[in-house]
Write a structure and sequence with these properties.
4 helices, mainly alpha
Amino acid sequence: MNSLTDTGFLFAVLDEKDVRHNACTSALEAEIAPFLPEVVLPELAYLVLRDLGYKVWIDLTVNRRR
């Protein structure tokens, strides 16, 4: 089953302090082909940089490519 991922869902996956972190992380790990609309990325980038910091953003965007 394909699922549509939104900003709040992805932010919860990245934020270990979020009350939905475990549930969202488990759901994402179980998903075979999640659909990520392009419009989610700018909002997610803004929220991650504002609330979680550059380290989380770098880990997400740069370090995962290696």
